[in-house]
Structures are given as structure tokens and as C-alpha cells.
Amino acid sequence: MLFTDRNQAAYQLAAALSQYQDMHPLVLAIPRGAVPMGRIIADALGGELDVVLVRKLPAPFNPEYAIGSVDESGWTYVSDSAAAAGATPEYIEQEKQRQLATIRRRRAEYTPLRPPFDPAGRIVIVVDDGLATGATMIAALHGLRERKPARLVCAIPVAPVDTVDRVRLYADDVVCLETPFSFQAVGQFYSDFPQVEDEEVVEILRR
Asked: Which of 14, 60, 63, 118 is buried deepest, with most CB atoms within 10 A?
């Protein structure tokens, strides 16, 4: 194990991101697991916290494996492995619509009284609790780039080397604490990796 829990990973990421301290960065967490981490990082850096809503497109026979992702605008990333995993164009479109419905529900639940914070002209740090294929992070970064941030940073505790290289094409900076050689799932690198529920996300964003 590399990390005791998400909190420990978040404090380590905050230290690695110290160059952005007191520059009022916008920390955008990918729900749900990264939201408690985003709170710690935003507080440490003197920034603001919000969510960036993206969803992976799971493989037809392996829901844990991402063959692509979709962002809040509907832009879709499809990996080169999608066809080999059995994903037809019809399946991808159907799954895209299903995930967009989840995104719309979460936006209404998470920030019902305000629009998303505007990233234009700001240092934007996108946080997740780890990357496997990097599909959701790519969708998040792509959507945010369209909104003209001053600097776009990807911050994750752990990811495979090839995933970091893939994501680097979409960000100005990638901060990744660990790149283990043997990588099966993000959770294997945490001693304690509980599911974060919607209620916790809502409470953190309300605060």
C-alpha cells in the first residue's frame, strides 16, 4: 500500500502543489471519491472547491473497465481499445446517454443553488483519487480547456506511467505522486478506500 487513506494522499498532493499556494486556484474534484480530497487541497492552497462532472463509459462485459468517458457538455472520449472490448457505436451512444442522465442528476443535487464556478483565466487543478485508464480525467481536462483557464493542472496520487503520459497531452502540468509498475485498480494502493456517498459530497460542497 502507498497511502493510508484518501486524506493522507490529499495532504501529500497539497504539498506537491505548494507552488500554487495563495494563487486562489480553483480545485475541481471528480466525484465522488476525490471530493473529500479536493476540500483538503483547496483549503491548503487557499483556493475554491467545486466538482467537474464526468463519467466513464464502462466496457460491455466489464463495468470497472473504462472504454471512454463523457463530460457535462456531451463531449465523448472513446479509447482505442473500445472495439476490442466489444463496444459497438450503438452501445457507446446508449451508454453515453445513460451517463449524461447521471451527470444531470448530480449537478442538480450537488450545486442546486448556483452554477459551476467559472474556470476562465484561473489556475485550475483537477483532482482524482487515482487513474487507471485516465478516461474520465481526459474528458474533464478537455472540457475545461474549452473554457480558457490560465493554467490547467491534473493532480492524482497514483496512476500507471502510460496513463500519465496519455493525460499529459491534455494538461499544462501533471502532478502524480506514484507510478507503480504493477497496476490493477486504484483501490489496491490504499489501506482504507471506502465509497464516498452523494450525501457526503453535498455536505462538503455546501460548506
From this structure: 14
